[in-house]
Design a protein that fits this description.
Helices cover about 35% and strands about 20% of the residues. It has about 280 residues and is of the alpha/beta class. The protein folds into two domains: about 160 residues, HAD superfamily/HAD-like (Rossmann fold), CATH 3.40.50; about 110 residues, Hypothetical Protein, Haloacid Dehalogenase-like Hydrolase, Chain: A, domain 2. The strands form two sheets. An eight-stranded mixed beta sheet has the order 5-4-3-2-1-12-13-14, with helices on both faces. The protein has a six-stranded mixed beta sheet with strand order 8-7-6-9-11-10, covered by helices on one side. The longest helix is centred in the middle third of the chain and has 14 residues. The radius of gyration is 18 Å and the shape is globular.
């Protein structure tokens, strides 16, 4: 742990965990150490939620495996559920989705357009074995024209677009193309060479705020743990922001404390620091 544990940790009642680069290691698996820490949190009455860019299909599959309730901020803040029940959503326009698909066509990259219960996509992307079961429910549309037709049929239900580049140079070009083609949106990296597109007012921070309100908690009673661009704002709105050791600079700067990286059970370290603070112990 870098530095001490802030006093705010003693008042935390809910911890919101990012997945990729945070709870999950580089192979998208949850370590035995992190699993044990989640069990300790449950036993101590500390509520645990996920706050991720991933789709609800994917999030629910992982939470079921971990024995957690389906309480999560999904799609980078565009969809929030409490015990599996929707409590918040923040949509994107059909025009935004159409433009994102056209950018993907120009870049020749993978693109998905998601609603609460569907993921429509075109292009190929390599997924970890641990994601296969959930992503098998995604609907591959073959080419971009087929995807456009499918998206137009679900126009009032769209929540997020996500695009993926195969290499760093392609990712930089993709980001430039998206910034030029889209306005009134939020662009934020959610994982390695993944770019999430949501409405300008949508963020994980907004989703976490909605979840806390639904649970009857103040943001001062919430901790958020993360590593990437879509976690930066969350660090500043919750009572305790916790950056992973592998977090980008802006996340580390905005956080109240820094723990080990996602290959060395940083989430377990964060949970145990909160539990110790709640019990009045020093770590």
């Amino acid at each position: 742990m870098v530095g001490g544990v802030p006093a705010a940790a003693s008042g935390v009642r809910l911890v919101c965990l990012d997945l990729d680069g945070t709870l999950c290691d580089g192979e998208k698996n949850v370590s035995s150490g992190n699993r044990a820490a989640l069990a300790r949190a449950r036993e101590a009455g500390l509520a645990v939620a996920v706050a991720s860019g991933r789709h609800p299909f994917n999030v629910c599959a992982l939470m079921d495996d971990l024995g957690l309730s389906r309480t999560a901020v999904c799609l980078s803040g565009a969809y929030v559920m409490l015990d599996g029940r929707e409590v918040f959503r923040y949509g994107i326009s059909l025009e935004c989705a159409e433009r994102a698909i056209e950018v993907a066509r120009r870049a020749g990259c993978y693109v998905s357009v998601s609603g609460a219960d569907f993921n429509l996509n075109s292009g190929s992307v390599t997924r970890a074995a641990s994601e296969a079961a959930a992503s098998s429910r995604y609907q591959g549309c073959g080419d971009y024209d087929v995807l456009l037709r499918a998206v137009r049929a679900r126009g009032g239900e769209l929540l997020k677009c996500a695009l993926h580049a195969d290499d760093d140079e392609g990712y930089r070009e993709l980001r430039v193309l998206l910034a030029e083609a889209l306005s009134g949106v939020t662009l934020a990296r959610s994982d390695v060479r993944w770019m999430d597109v949501t409405d300008a007012g949508c963020s994980k921070a907004e989703g976490i705020s909605a979840l806390a309100a639904a649970m009857g908690l103040s943001l001062a009673e919430v901790a958020a743990v993360g590593d990437d661009e879509n976690d930066v704002e969350s660090m500043g709105v919750v009572g305790l922001g916790i950056a992973m050791g592998n977090a980008i600079g802006p996340v580390r700067s905005a956080a109240g404390m820094v723990v080990a990286d996602n290959e060395h059970d940083g989430v377990a370290e964060a949970i145990d620091a909160i539990l110790a603070a709640r019990e009045g112990r020093t770590s």
